[in-house]
Design goal:
Helices cover about 40% and strands about 15% of the residues. It contains 29 helices and 35 strands. Helix 2 (about 140-155) packs across helix 3. Belongs to the TRAFAC class myosin-kinesin ATPase superfamily. Myosin family.
Amino acid sequence: MARADKYMHTIPCGGTLPRRTAMGFGGNSIQYNMGGHTGSGGLGTIVSPSGGGSGTLPAGTGSSTAHFRDRQEGTGTNEMDDLIHLPGPLTEDAVMRTLHNRFNDGKYFTNVGPILLSVNPYHDVGNPLTLSSTRSVPLAPQLRKIVQEAVRQQAETGYPQAIILSGTSGSGKTHCSMLLLRQLFAVAGGGPETDAFKHLAAAFTVLRSLGSAKTTTNSESSRIGQFIEVQVTDGALYRTKIHCYFLDQTRVIRPLPNEKNYHIFYQMLAGLNADECARLNLEGYSPANLRYLQHGDIRQDEQEDAARFQAWKACLGILGIPFLDVVRVLAAVLLLGNVQFIDGQGLEVEVVGETELNAVANLLGVPSAQLFRGLTTRTHNARGQLIKSVCDANMSNMTRDCLAKALYCRTVATIVRRANSLKRLGSTLGTLSSDSNESVHNQAEVASQHASTIGGNAGSKSMAALNNAVRHATDGFIGILDMFGFEEPRPAQLEHLCINLCAETMQHFYNTHIFKSSVESCREEGIICDTEVDYVDNVPCIDLISSLRTGLLSMLDAECSVRGTAESYVAKIKVQHRNSARLEQRALEPYDPRLFAIRHFAGRVEYDTTDFLDTNRDVVPDDLVSVFYKHTCNFGFATHLFGTELKALYAQENGPRGLSFRIAPTSHTDLLNGDEPVSTLTQDFHTRLDNLLRTLVHARPHFVRCIRSNTAEKGGMFDRGAVVRQIRALQVLETVNLMASGFPHRMRFKQFTARYRMLAPFRLLRRCEEKALEDCKVILDFALENPPELDGSVTLSWAPGKRHIFLSEGIRQHLERLRTEVRMKSATLIQATWRGWNLRKRLGTIRRTHDIQLMGGALLSVNKASGARTGNVSHANANNTGTATRPRPQPIAGTPPPDPNEKCDSKIIAQTCTLFGLDLERPPPVPPSRSYTVTGNSKLGYPQTRIMKMNFPEDPAAVGLGEQLRKGEAVTVTGASHRRGHLIVEHNGISLHVPFQYMELVKTIAPVPSGAGNAPSGATVPPPPTATAVNI
């Protein structure tokens, strides 16, 4: 237990904070004491995703000490959207009752200050959880506030933002991540109509089928962790990149009882037609007779799987990945499981399932005999002498399984690289980034080298400045982390140990950021707080698993190097950690020397080490890799899967020489010219986890804590026992107490005055760094002149430190509410003033025009009545009248003429034009707009019929239009506009440029014919039949 020091002191600026007690754990009274929490990663920004809280905020006196009052009658706990406003003492029962009532009321998101709790209601069980499948799910306002806050802070500070989702398996992390990504595109990426969104949606559809599987507790369990990195520049989405963490390799060859293999295998068997099955040698096969599938749950909904497979196939095409290449590898993986090796009469092994072996060789494009030798022989390097040996049946079967895992893992990695390398030329919005080898930093370096070769020193200096600007613009990102949730299967494998280590690490990151940093910050700056929080520190469990020399993973690597056994490994770790409270020492029932148990932060898990050593070695021999060399393999995709290893293998000598490579893909620089690969499975995972933590440490985190409502995946069922265990594991009670009564936020004096200076009269602020603390006190005094009414025991406390001002969550919400009100009033005043001035200006013009028209009409009537003037004179008067009524032309918008006094070096202009391929005589051509819209899997041509979702424009008179497109009205779209995000609408003979968000597409629209793009210029294309748009 990590406990903050307990103080009883009166804060100089605000009085004494009220002590809060809790009776949630066994009825014992717990006193809390907590310090301040850095809300902005050291930059001083403290605004929470809650955006200043809900409408009704706490009540109190003018001082910084808050008094309590009971809630008004008629207000239920289901209406309380922030747990810090709970009335009465803070107890576990009060938190549970509030969450249960909100759950029954259909409110599944609840704030704890800036932290969001999400309860999974299981209303859409079976949803594949992609960007497309969650498109119809309404976005919760709490998630929208998190995204808006992250975008705002990234735009204002340039500091990276990370939205971290955590919780047990099945708690809805992936569902929330898709909703957050949708909202991020709506705020900064142009919405779901953009090509970037469609490409990313296709990528997630493909990866969900490849990386999801059914477990005992979750039918859509993500077996691939994802960190979605979104670069946002000047409030607009610049690029996206998906970082994947693939762990569960053993599932490919051996799913656990009552679980399933990856979804794609079942979907492929249900979705392939007869011709495709024949080409892939899968005729007559089903989950019941395929060895890699039959040991798990073989039940499936063939109709649903077939539909998902067709969507998966279409999305592969969007990503530009050949469908047949991928399914050839997947079919080979399935058929490999039916190839069995048994010991023969002589030295060589015999094959059971020679038909499947020949089919696998045919699918992978290699000779059958060579594949057999690669699976059953091994090359050894004995003192420089290469010796070939024949493997026994057991070793050959293990090599076969290694090949199956390697083919699957490398196919997934190839698809991820392809999704990250998609680029659309001519589009700067939402371009998908490539992998690290093609990042914008490397592109800038290449450009810099190019500039130095053609432009000399001046060019290199200018490009160096450009490089620095590009780096500065792209350093800040918004990341969405959807990592593995805590799992407790029976029996648990090595992959589950790594998954639970990841969950422990994310919990430790939360504890450090929320609890530990608050305590240390208050202690360093002399802030005294009488709120104490007892939180569970899980560092001992992390050290038990991942300590450098004595951790379970390090000892496993040592056991692999000495060719040990599972029994010896378990015996050693029990001796080494005999004093650890996290590793159970008592004998498990029934006793098995290969089992051990760990008490994790979320529960106790038993691990079976039978396959620990083989899984951790994670190797495939070079005899097998050499089979896919381009001289013997005619399937380029398979050769590409082992491209790095083949390049290292044939760089010096031709042929195997006793090397071992990783099952997972390895970069060329990480290969080791020895008998073992550079790292094991656990070492590689631990390295990647450390790199992820380094990224998160430098980002401003926004936490979303996910909770599963029950363990049976039943919609609308709230299992209090399951929820309370998660509440305790996630330490929600401690978080509520800190946010309500402690100092969870701190800001530097200068940043505080910069954000809240509009709350105090401008004349009273000193506006200098030496007087920043005095300005903070002035702002807070004016903010507390009319304090809000407080619910529960929320405080309005604040305290000045040495370098920071420390704030409670209550006063932070109050300051944000006041700031929002002032800004709204100011914006309203500015708009009203401008609109009044503009209307008065236009009114004068309208009156003058009206008077002129009346005068012209009077003259015409006089001339016609008198007849004194000739026809020529009448014609001249008519011309004069027309000139008077013609509206005055607007000046042409454009860049002002250059200042003749400014001198510009012609050499620099020429070098810049040469560098970027520009012509001084003519501007670069404008790329042609496409003549269709992509909706789902269909290309829909123009014209289109759309329905207005809102009025456009809001004020027709202000923009000079006599008509307004009203909500619900059907309009005709004739093409894409040159304006960003606009479409051309023809209405009553007038062309309008309307943003696409104002309209929705009618479902039945004519698609672009497949041959329209290649039709000759004089050909007549018949009108296409109507088709229904299909979502990707």
